[in-house]
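Long-time lurker, first post. I've been practising inverse folding by hand and with some scripts of my own, and I keep getting stuck on stretches where the structure tokens seem ambiguous. Below is the full token string for one chain I'm working on. Before anyone asks, I'm not after the true native sequence, just a reasonable design that respects the backbone. If someone could post their per-position residues I'd love to compare against what I wrote down in my notebook.
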């Protein structure tokens, strides 16, 4: 679990972020990127598939979900659809981080309310910029960020 990061400007409340990816390495890289970006973290949650993510979302307050699309058990698209069917989960912003690049799938994700799409492999600056755009309330020390979101 990542401890709260105090290297941010302002007195923002920390965010709870759920990282959903079947790769432990990718989950760790994303978590480390978030920490280094200066995002104020309350709790970092991890899931290896959409089913586990939905379980965590039903039991925890989450401010942002970063999810892969292609996962075993339950893929990211199904997870996002189920989130939108649930009154408590439907307002949680989702950013997709995936190797999936088909315009048709990206368009479907956009129409289902996904806030941004980041293509793997990604640069840490891209993740930082997308999270800052979606959360919009914190400012890291480094404000020069390239934006590869939708």
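-- Answer (accepted) --
I ran through it position by position. Result:
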């Amino acid at each position: 679990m990542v401890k709260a990061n105090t290297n941010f400007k302002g007195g923002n409340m920390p965010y709870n972020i759920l990282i959903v990816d079947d790769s432990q390495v990718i989950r760790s890289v994303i978590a480390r990127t978030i920490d280094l970006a200066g995002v104020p973290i309350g709790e970092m949650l991890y899931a290896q598939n959409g089913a586990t993510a939905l379980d965590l979302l039903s039991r925890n307050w989450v401010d942002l979900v970063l999810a892969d699309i292609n996962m075993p058990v339950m893929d990211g698209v199904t997870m996002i659809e189920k989130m939108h069917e649930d009154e408590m989960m439907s307002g949680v912003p989702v950013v997709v981080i995936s190797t999936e690049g088909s315009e048709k799938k990206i368009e479907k994700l956009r129409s289902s309310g996904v806030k941004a799409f980041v293509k793997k492999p990604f640069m840490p600056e891209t993740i930082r910029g997308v999270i800052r755009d979606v959360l919009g309330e914190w400012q890291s020390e480094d404000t020069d960020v390239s934006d590869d979101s939708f």
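A couple of notes from the structure itself: Confidence is low (pLDDT under 50) at residues 1-11, 140-150. DSSP finds five helices and five strands in the chain. Happy to go over any region you disagree with.
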